[in-house]
């Protein structure tokens, strides 16, 4: 091995342009590889559990929804690998009667033959084949790790504006757009039309004739449906005080006849029935209307298949929604996990640049040179393409944990370059020719470099081959470190000595003009000649 490495290094120093071209090709491959790899926020672990969030057709009662949910849960339990299910109906904050959630617990991973992601597909196929004719809105996803049900989908996009009709159309078009994007499943819009509604319109002319203020009519209707808190009294029991809210019973709040007889005060008539001053009309509309900054909004959510790239899907969705030409009065933005991914990407790039800066400053102080740190840091970008290749080979994604693995990889690779350059500097101080010092230094440091690399990779192997809960998190970081370290080792062992010689030639240039001025200024301030650069670490 020593002889082969010496032969390779001597030929590389005689044909440095070959190494330079190869290095540039590797560096330029970062762009295509970065575009090809999937980019997600977090890897998804196999937790042996999932949940199915279903919205049945509008108009279903809570009892009908509960019976239907129980039937669906029984069919899900029959799937191979399922253990038990738990059904909750009307469990959202609005207590929507036609919405239910099925929590499904699978047997342990070592007792089933399919993964959690594969189970998602089986549940979706089951629901589509058995209940597709009902037009259910279904989301099959991982159980939220921090409590709650749903609400943390990888695709979460919000459009808000003044016109509810426009937002409803955007919701319908958004679902069609999501279905057209490869890898997207379970698209959903928060504005769901079809809920039966009773519209109440105050007849201002008739109200004026009867002496009824329109505000009083609205307040009476608000008390009937929403309820009004009694500010002057509290209900006390066992030393605890509770709010008192006046509101009609649940069965009466949907009674149109009771609504018609609701009394409204009038200064001239005393009390009049609400039906005397309003007109009612039946229709359909969205079951719920959410707001953001006091503006109505529609929220588009979806889940992704394992082969889909979250970043690519979000960019495609944003481009197509903006192409609808909604106008300046409508705002479009990501939220939830989608916006967190954007923040995480920006934070990673900031950390990436700061790590380069601090490493450069520390190395410049150690080597008392501005060029040697450049040689060392040139080894870091050479590992990125190989780290991305390892993600592609293992069908993974570039997420927050694999990015952390790349930063760890930088620290390991930088250590190898420091060993080579420090030893070369020491041998040159002892009088060896530059190329001879480079070859000898690389040979001397080959053994410790290989030993530390093998030990480090061996320590990552248990994480890379781990199974069970948390395995995806372990593999996301360890696979990047192992792949980047192993595949880039040979190139960095050859490229660093060549770059050292090239930058040493640049340091020794004697030219007139702008390049000579800073050199003479540096030497005039006591800068060390290149032949006398000391070793910060000793022999």
UniProtKB/TrEMBL annotation:
<dbReference type="GO" id="GO:0042910">
    <property type="term" value="F:xenobiotic transmembrane transporter activity"/>
</dbReference>
<keyword id="KW-1133">Transmembrane helix</keyword>
<feature type="transmembrane region" description="Helical">
    <location>
        <begin position="347"/>
        <end position="367"/>
    </location>
</feature>
<dbReference type="Pfam" id="PF00873">
    <property type="entry name" value="ACR_tran"/>
</dbReference>
<keyword id="KW-0472">Membrane</keyword>
<feature type="transmembrane region" description="Helical">
    <location>
        <begin position="400"/>
        <end position="418"/>
    </location>
</feature>
<dbReference type="InterPro" id="IPR001036">
    <property type="entry name" value="Acrflvin-R"/>
</dbReference>
<dbReference type="GO" id="GO:0005886">
    <property type="term" value="C:plasma membrane"/>
</dbReference>
<keyword id="KW-0812">Transmembrane</keyword>
<dbReference type="InterPro" id="IPR027463">
    <property type="entry name" value="AcrB_DN_DC_subdom"/>
</dbReference>
<feature type="transmembrane region" description="Helical">
    <location>
        <begin position="449"/>
        <end position="469"/>
    </location>
</feature>
<feature type="transmembrane region" description="Helical">
    <location>
        <begin position="481"/>
        <end position="503"/>
    </location>
</feature>
<protein>
    <submittedName>
        <fullName>Efflux RND transporter permease subunit</fullName>
    </submittedName>
</protein>
């Amino acid at each position: 091995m020593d002889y082969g490495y010496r032969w390779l290094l001597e030929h590389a120093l005689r044909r440095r342009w070959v190494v330079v071209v190869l290095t540039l090709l590797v560096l330029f491959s970062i762009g295509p590889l970065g575009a090809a790899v999937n980019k997600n926020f977090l890897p998804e672990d196999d937790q042996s559990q999932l949940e199915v969030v279903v919205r049945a057709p509008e108009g279903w009662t809570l009892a009908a929804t509960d019976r239907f949910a129980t039937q669906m849960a029984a069919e899900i339990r029959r799937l191979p690998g399922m253990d038990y299910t738990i059904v909750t109906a009307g469990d959202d904050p609005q207590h929507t009667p036609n919405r239910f959630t099925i929590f499904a617990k699978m047997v342990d991973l070592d007792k089933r033959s399919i993964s959690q992601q594969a189970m998602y597909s089986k549940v979706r196929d089951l629901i589509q084949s058995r209940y597709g004719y009902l037009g259910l809105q279904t989301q099959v996803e991982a159980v939220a790790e921090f409590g709650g049900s749903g609400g943390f989908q990888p695709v979460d996009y919000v459009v808000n504006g003044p016109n509810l009709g426009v937002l409803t159309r955007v919701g319908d078009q958004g679902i069609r757009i999501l279905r057209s994007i490869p890898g997207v499943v379970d698209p959903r819009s928060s504005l769901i039309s079809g809920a039966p509604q009773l519209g109440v319109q105050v007849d201002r002319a008739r109200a004026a004739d009867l002496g009824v203020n329109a505000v009083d009519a609205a307040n009476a209707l608000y008390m009937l449906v929403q309820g009004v808190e009694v500010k002057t009294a509290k209900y006390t029991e066992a030393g605890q005080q509770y709010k008192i809210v006046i509101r009609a019973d649940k069965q009466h709040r949907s009674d149109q006849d009771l609504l018609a007889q609701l009394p409204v005060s009038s200064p001239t008539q005393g009390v009049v029935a609400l039906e005397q001053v309003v007109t009612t009309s039946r229709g359909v509309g969205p079951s719920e209307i959410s707001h953001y900054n006091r503006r109505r909004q529609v929220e588009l959510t979806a889940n992704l298949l394992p082969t889909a790239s979250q970043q690519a899907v979000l960019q495609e969705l944003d481009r197509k929604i903006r192409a609808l030409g909604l106008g300046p009065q409508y705002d479009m933005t990501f939220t939830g996990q989608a916006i967190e991914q954007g923040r995480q990407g920006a934070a990673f790039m900031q950390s990436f640049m700061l790590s380069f800066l601090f490493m450069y400053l520390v190395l410049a102080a150690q080597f008392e040179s501005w060029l040697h740190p450049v040689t060392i840091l040139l080894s870091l970008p050479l590992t990125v393409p190989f780290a991305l290749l390892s993600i592609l080979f293992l069908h993974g994604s570039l997420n927050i944990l694999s990015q952390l693995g790349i930063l760890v990889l930088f620290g390991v690779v930088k250590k190898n370059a420091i060993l080579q350059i420090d030893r070369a500097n020491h041998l040159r101080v002892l009088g060896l020719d530059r190329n001879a010092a480079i070859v000898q230094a690389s040979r001397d440091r080959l053994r410790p470099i290989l030993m530390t690399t093998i030990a480090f990779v061996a320590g990552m192997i248990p994480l890379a081959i781990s199974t069970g809960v948390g395995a995806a998190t372990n593999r996301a970081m360890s696979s990047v470190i192992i792949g980047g370290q192993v595949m880039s080792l040979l190139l960095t062992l050859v490229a660093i000595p060549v770059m050292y010689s090239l930058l040493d030639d640049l340091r020794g240039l004697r030219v007139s003009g702008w390049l000579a001025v800073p050199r003479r200024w540096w030497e005039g301030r006591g800068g060390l000649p290149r032949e006398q650069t000391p070793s910060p670490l000793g022999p």
